[in-house]
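Q: Got a minute? One more chain.
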Amino acid sequence: LNLRLSPDRFAKVVHQLRPGDYVRFVDGPLQAGGLTWWKMSLASQNGQPPEGWAVEDPAWYERAWGQ
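A: Always. Here it is, folded:
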């Protein structure tokens, strides 16, 4: 899952999330370009954690609540 600099699917990718990464929701939801976006901050133990915007995916809910 790509974290982007702004809520735009053509914005620069600042980080790629991997399975098992923990994030904190910083802002959102925001509607832009026909998509729903959430600003997330990646949990980090060193320095400033990566932060960016990701498109909402309904499959998240299935994985989160299906376990």
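A: Strands lie at 2-4, 13-16, 23-32, 35-42, 51-55.
Q: Perfect, thanks.
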